[in-house]
Each structure stands twice: as structure tokens, then as C-alpha cells.
Amino acid sequence: MPFKSTVSWTAMLTAYAENGKILKAREVFDNMPARTTSSYNAMITAYNKYGGMVDEAYDLFCNMSERNAVSYATMITGLVSVGRFDKALEVYENTPGEWWEPVCSNVLINGYLKVGRLDEAVAVFEGMFQRDVVSWSLMVDGYCKSGRIVKARKLFDEMMERNVVTWTTMINGYMKMGYLVDGFGLFSSMRKEKGIFVNSTTLTVIFEACGHFERYREGIQMHGLVLKLGFDFCVFLGNSIIAMYCRFGCIGPAKLLFDLMSKKDLVSWNSLITGYVQENEIEEAYELFEKMPKKDIVSWTTIIMGFSGQGQTDKAVELFRMMPQKDTVAWTVVISGFVSNEMCEGAFHWFIEMLQKSVKPNSLTLSSLLSASANSAILNHGQQIHAQAIKMLLELDLSIQNSLVSMYSKCGNVADACRVFMSIKEPNTVSFNSMITGFAQNGLGEEALNLFRKMQREGQEPNQITFLAVLSACSHVGLVEVGWEHFKNMKSLYNIEPGPDHYSCMVDLLGRAGLFDEAVDLIYSMPFEPHPGVWGALLGTSTTHHRLDLAKLAAQHLTKLEPDSATPYVVLSNLYTLLGKKIDGDKVRMDKKSKGIKKSPGCSWMIVKDKVHLFLAGDQSHMDSEEIRATLWTIMKEMEELGCNR
Fold first, then answer.
1. Cα separation, 326 vs 481, whole angstroms
2. CA distance 505 to 522
3. For residue 644, what is the enclosing H or E element?
């Protein structure tokens, strides 16, 4: 250029900054023959927005000979973005009065609200003499996000002027809180407001709410409205509708819209793949995954999760190894896949490899491994994960604490489970459920019921899992009347419909107490078909009390529900034999044999050098089988010589 104006120099400075070349931008700034307030503002913005160099921006701000409202607003923005509110407030208070409001005040309010400091934001807002629509909208949003929806609506109603952002903010507040009727009502009012036009952001808020709360009818109506209004299916709007249909489990409409979209981004592809995975259509998900022009970590992680969910851990591992970049979430998905498929040894193997790769696990990783330890009752592994949580300063993470309570309980270490539970500052329903279940599983019925009463006193809402543990506790200590009371309270006090497992617990409770007429009446009064657990409870308790008639009834139903299960045959034949009816017992065994039904072999395991060794009755597949047999024979001979067989 033959002549470069200050505007030209400033434009070049901004261009370098937007491309991340902050040092080059500063070089342009330093070489400018003349600098204006706009030049300084541009360089301060570059430091704040693109370089994260707030100290340099502040030095430049202090050296300005002349400032305007933009200078102050830009500097306050930079300071609040890095949490330096004291310095931001100092700049704000030194701002000339005519520039305070509304711009600088809005910047400070926005900064406070972003970090959840609502009270400070309110103080600035209430001290303003001149507010614009941005000021009001920010505060409406702040109240909504803090859960004070009534206050937000009061402020909204007081506004003299509202724009589409204000309306959308208030609607979003209602939707996020689950007040869908109010949200839809406000949306209807918005459409009637003169000069206000619904935009794609407003519609996206509605679609997200419909999907999240499974409001299918409203979602379909909103989609119809979009078509009626003639909205262009921009990527943002299209993605929200695809995600909504996928949440409904309606993959057909989601795929149809996906195919109609002229422009798609990664979110479009990932949303549809997630939908297929959620509906267990893994082949379709993988086909779409393979067609993606570009994949990100979310794409890879979702498809790996899909194959793990189908039990195809080998394919999940194959894809994981192919991932160009692996983050903590991806590693956690692989580990969780092994846990959910009851391949706990594999989960710990991948965790060790994760640590060897210097990838830092998170609370979900450790919770998943604690679940693996609990499921396999391997206390040593669980204790190691506990130590890892302490090392990572995660021992006070609520999800970790809840998992620890469950792990220690399932491993039979109730004392440590109690210690962890008592260390939880604010236990939630999951915390109480884990401890109550732990007490019940370990035969400590009274302790379980006492903790349940404490849970009620503290105002925690019990759920189906809570009552399952409570009824199990009642069964362990034989509190029939108390069990009946809790069973009835599920519906009357908490509006929780008892499920099949709750009925199983009640049948077990009544059966243990010998109240078989009540147990059978309860089974026949069930609002749905009894599942195997119900008849299994009756079979178990009737066998204990030598009620052959009821054992035969339960076994008859079990053979229909689980035709390949040997349990009813074995239990019934043993009861016949116990009652001196060996011929009838032999007939049951022959019936089982003629149908080709085999009893599952007994199973045990032990851990040697962090490796789980599994043994099945009659199985000789262990690699050290011969050596083990020889050692056992030697031990038995030595015991005979010592007279231990007498």
C-alpha cells in the first residue's frame, strides 16, 4: 500500500491476532507511526481474547493517554475472564461516570454470573441507574441458572423492552427446571408478541427439552411448526431435532432428516451414531461411522461404547487401538466395557496400561473399577483403587465414596463401608442406598432399618432400590409386619409402584416366617406375571419348611419360565429325598437328565500375584492342573499319615 492509515495498521494487527500470532500483532502495534485509542483497544483485545495475556493488556491499558468506554469495557472483560475480580472492580470503579452504564456494568455482571457469583451481580445491577435490555437479560439468565425461576420471571415481567434473547433465556430457564407447561406457554406468548420473531436458538431450546423429558407429542408438533414457518434447516437446528428423535428412539425420522440436511458437521454424524448405539443397532452405527468424512474423539468413543454394550469387547479394543488420539473418557469407556461384561480381570489390565501410558484416570474410571472389585468380591483390588483415589485427592468425590461403600459391603467388610459412609459430608440417595443394601446383604437387618429411618428424618427421598434393600433387611430379621408396612408405603407415601423384585422380597419374607397362604395370595395378586425370582423365593422358603406341595408348584412355574435351568429339578429332588421319597426324587433327576439339562458346576477362584485363577468342579483346563492335583495328593497323604482323616 502506498499509504497506510491508522485504520489499515489496526486491521492488520487484528488479523494477526485472530490467527493466533500475538507477537506479530504486537510488532505491528509497535511499528505504527501513530496510534489511536482504537489501536490500543485492538491490541488490548488481542491480548485478552487470543493470547490470554491479561497482564500485558493491563500494562498497555495503564499507558493509554486517552481511553473511551470500549477501553474500560475491554479491560474489565479480560480481567473477569481470568477471575481477577478485585482488579476488574478497581478498573470499573475508576471508569468515568458517563461510561459506567450500561456497557461496563453489563460486562461486570456477565463476569460475576459466569462464575456463579449471583449476589455480586445483583449488587451491580441494583446499583445501575441506566439499564438496557442486555442488563435485564443477563439477570434473568442468572436467576434461571441459579434455580430461582420465580425471581427470574418477576424480573422478566418488569422489563419494558424484551428481545428474542430475553424470551429465549426465560423459556430455557423453565425448560431446564422441568417446568414444561410454563415454558411452552411462554413460547406461545412469544409468538404473539409484536416485533419478536422465533429464531433457531429458541427452537433448539424447545427440541432439547422435548428430547430430555421425552415429550414426544410436543416434539412432533414443534417439528411441524418448523416446517410450517419455513425455517431453513441450519446445522444447529437440524442437529437438535436429530438428537430429539434419537432420545425418543425414533431412528427412522432422525435418519431421514440427516439425509435431507445439505450441510452436516461432526455433531450431526455423532448424534445419529449415538442414536443407533442407544437402540442397540450397532451394525448401522458402525456403517455410518465408517462413512464419516472426519471423526473426532466423540465419534470413536461412541462406537467403542456401542460394541462394548453388545458384548463385543474384542472389536471395541480393536477400534480403541486404532484411535489416533485417546483421552481419559475413551480409556474409561474401554475399562467400563470390560466391567459391564463381567470381565473384571480385563478391566484391571487396561487400567494398568492406562497408568503406564501416563493417562490420568478420573472419578468415573475409579468408580467403574470399584464396581468390578465389588462384583468379583476382590477386596485387595478394591483397596488398591481406594489408595489410588486418595493419591489423586479424589477420596472425597461423592461418586467414589458411594462406590467404596458398595465395594466394601459386597466384599463383606461392613466396618470399612461404614467408615466411608460416615465420612460423606452430604450423603445423597445413592449413598444411603449403598449402605442400607450393604447392611442387608451382610445380615445386619436392624442396622439397615435404623439407617433407613435416619434417611427419612434427613428428608432424603427413597426410591425403588432403597425399598428393595429395606424389604431384604426385614426378611433377614423376620420383621413381617414392618415389611408389610414398608411395602404398602411405597405406593401410598412415595408413589412408587412395587416391581417384581419387591414382590420377590415379600414372598421371601412371608415364606421364611411360614406364612405361605399370604405368600401365595400375594403372588396371585401381582399386577403382572411373576418372574423367576418370585417363584424362586417360594421354592427356597417352602423347601426350608418342607412344604412339598408349594415346592412342586414353584418348580412347575420355574421350569416353564426357565426351561434350561437345573435349579428347580435339583431343589425338588433333594426335598423328595429329604422327606424319605427317594423314588420320586430319582424320577425328578431322570426327568432333568432326559431333557439334557445340566447343573451349572460349582465355581471358586483365588488371586495369586494379582491374577484371578478360576476353578470349576470337574474342570481340568487350568494350565497348572497336573501340578495342582499332585500337590493336593501329597497334602492328602500327609494328612492321612498324621491321622487327620479320622
1. 55
2. 11
3. none
Determine the Cα–Cα distance for residues 257 and 541; give it in Å rounded to an integer: 56
Q: Given pLDDT bands bounded at 50, 70 and 90, which one contains residue 83? A: confident
* Contact by Cβ (8 Å): 182, 175: no
What's the rounded mean pLDDT across residues 66-95? 90
What's the whole-number mean pLDDT along residues 237-262? 93
Looking up cell 472483560, which residue turns up? 77
Q: Is 579 helix (H, G, I), strand (E, B) or coil?
A: coil
Query: Is the predicted pLDDT of residue 128 greater than 80, yes or no?
Result: yes
Could you read off the pLDDT of 489-508 as tens digits, one per residue?
999 999 999 999 999 999 99
Q: 49: which DSSP letter?
A: I
Is there a contact between 405 and 434 (Cβ–Cβ < 8 Å)? yes
DSSP annotation string for 369-381: HHHHHHHHT-HHH
Give the Cβ contact number of residue 488 at 10 Å. 11
The model's pTM: 0.76
Alpha helices in 310-427 (DSSP H): 313-322, 328-340, 344-356, 363-376, 379-391, 398-410, 414-423
96-126: string of b/e by CB count within 10 Å (b at 16+)? Answer: eeebbbbbbbbbbbbbbbeeeebebbbebbe
Q: Nearest-CA neighbor of 437 among 458, 426, 421, 459?
A: 421
Our CA angle for 138, 72, 18, nearest 5°, is: 85
- Of 282, 212, 202, nearest to 243 by C-alpha is 212
Q: Decide if pLDDT at 463 tops 90.
A: yes
Alpha helices in 131-163 (DSSP H): 133-145, 149-158
Q: What is the mean pLDDT of residues 580-605?
A: 76
In whole angstroms, what is the distance from residue 322 CA to residue 299 CA? 12
Distance in angstroms (rounded) separating the CA atoms of residues 141 and 146: 9
C-alpha cell read off for 617: 468342579
What pLDDT was estimated at residue 399?
94
- pLDDT attached to residue 3: 56
Q: What's the DSSP call for residue 194?
A: T
Residue pair 76/57 in contact (Cβ under 8 Å)? The answer is: no
Cα separation, 316 vs 303, in Å, equals 8
Residue 599, Cβ neighbours under 10 Å: how many? 12
Whether the Cβ atoms of residue 455 and residue 466 lie closer than 8 Å to each other: yes
Residue 451 has pLDDT above 70, yes or no: yes
What confidence score (pLDDT) does residue 480 get? 93
Cell numbers placing 575: 426335598
pLDDT higher than 90, residue 644:
no
Separation CA 213–CA 205 (nearest Å) = 12
SS3 615: strand
What digits encode the pLDDT tens for the residues 166-213?
999 999 999 999 999 999 999 999 999 988 888 889 999 999 999 999
C-alpha angle with apex 275: 271 to 277, nearest 5 degrees? 115
| Count of C-beta atoms within a 10 Å radius of residue 520 | 18
pLDDT (0 to 100) of residue 633: 76
The rounded distance, in Å, linking the Cα atoms of 217 and 301 is 31
- DSSP SS3 for 616: strand
Report angle CA 428, 434, 435 to the nearest 5 degrees. Answer: 95
Q: Give burial (CB, 10 Å; 0-12/13-18/19+) of 47.
A: buried
Tell me the pLDDT of the chain averaged across its residues.
Answer: 89
Contact predicate 441/471, CB 8 Å = no
